Amino acid sequence: MVRSDARENRARILAAAREALTADGSTSMNQIAQRAGVGAGTLYRNFPTREALVLAVYQDEVTRIVGTVPGLLAKMPPLEALRHWTTDLVEAMRRKHGLGDALSPGAHQAISEQSYGPVVAAITELLDAGKKDGSIRADADPGDFLQLTGALWRAASTPQDRAPHMLALILDGLGTHR
């Protein structure tokens, strides 16, 4: 059982690290501890290395994004839920790219391996809901969708963000066009 203050400290550290490392990948551990309002000992007790902290930030973000699927499907039709979810994923990938400076190649590989299964499962849930209601093609594949949308976070975001237009094209191709 983890004490509530320990859980709150961990959550504050993760939030501070996400914000700080996204803005500047070279932010020090001490600066993150200060932003979180905890001592260095508390930070290192939770995250013994910088890489452990960055990996935890990534994992926290993946868990958050994957966890939004049921709520989206409860509020909107599957194709629209897929649009909202993918837009959120693209924003997270853009932030992840900003965190990338803080990771070694091995850590990049580890986070990709840890993230792939839950992300594909979320896509599968969204696609299956659309297949069930007839709005998404029966042959839509979660792995293919992930590959296609992988380019969206790299799309030019200035002067105009190209990702929404590209996503619209992908989603149009998924539709059954009844």
Question: What report would you give on this structure?
Answer:
This protein is about 75% helix and about 0% strand. It is mostly helical and about 180 residues long. Helix 1 (about 5-25) packs across helix 4, helix 4 (about 50-65) runs parallel beside helix 7 and helix 6 runs antiparallel to helix 7. It holds the Pfam family TetR_N.
Mean pLDDT, nearest integer?
Answer: 88
Fraction in beta strands: under 5%
Poorly predicted runs are none
Estimated structural class = mainly alpha
Structural Rg: 18 Å
Number of strands: 0
Order of helices and strands: HHHHHHHHH
Alpha-carbon distance between the termini? 52 Å
Query: Quick one: overall form?
Result: elongated
The biggest beta sheet is recorded as: none
Number of helices in the DSSP assignment? 9
Work out the helicity level. over 70%
Write out key terms for the chains shown.
178 residues; transcription regulation; mainly alpha; 9 helices
